[in-house]
Each structure stands twice: as structure tokens, then as C-alpha cells.
Amino acid sequence: MAVKIRLKRVGTKKKPFYRVVAVDSRKKRDGVVLEWLGQYQPIVNADQFVVDEEKTIKWLKEGAQPTETILRLLKKSGIWQKFRSVKS
Q1: What is the layout of strands, in order, in the sheet containing 65-66?
Q2: In total, how many domains does the chain have?
Q3: Which CATH number is 50's domain given?
Q4: How much is the pLDDT for 68?
Q5: Cα-Cα end-to-end distance for the chain
Q6: HEC profile of 10-66
């Protein structure tokens, strides 16, 4: 099973709010998820991207592929660098 770490939209119209989830890549965007990892609010000025580092790194170690948006957010938050240092 190919696992992706991606965003699942749960916000209302013109007020996007996303959950960061680990999901089977063959499922729909808002389909059944394997595990909920965090949240992302793109229109809030405060801390927009909040994820559980341990769960995220665990899924990355197991081979989950992040989408482009998630990869950019992981790099910005420093979690991607921690994963790369643990992986080596």
C-alpha cells in the first residue's frame, strides 16, 4: 500500500482549514485516513502549521511520501531536516 502524507480539507467556504493526514494514495482527498497528524490554517496569522513530529517522522520512516505542499511545510518547520538526520 502506497501511503501519502497530505492535506484533508475540513474548512468552510472561503475559510480553509486542513488536517494533515496519512492516507492510502488511492483514496479520495477527503476519504478514510490512516492517521491524523496535525493541522494547517493558511489564513491565520498565528502558528499555522501544527503537527505531531514523532508520528510524522514515523510515517516518513515507513515510506510515506509527502505531497509538495506538505514537503514545503515540513521544511519550513524543521521537521524534514530532523527526519533526514535520523534517516542517515
Answers
A1: 49-51, 35-40, 18-24, 3-9, 65-66
A2: 1
A3: 3.30.1320.10
A4: 95
A5: 24
A6: CCECCECCEEEEEEECCCCCCCCCCEEEEEECCCCCCCCEEECHHHHHHHHHCCCEE
Phi/psi at 10 (5° precision): -130, 0
- Inter-axis angle of helices 79-87 and 53-61, to 10 degrees? 40
pLDDT, tens digit (0-9, with 9 covering 90-100), for 41-80:
988 877 789 999 999 999 999 999 999 999 999 999 999 9
Grid cell locating 59? 510515517
Contact criterion met (CB below 8 Å) for 74 and 6 = no
Tell me the one-letter amino acid at 53. Answer: E
CA 76 from centre of chain: 13
The amino acid at 9: R
Which cell numbers in the block locate residue 61? 520512516
**Domain span including residue 80:** 3-87
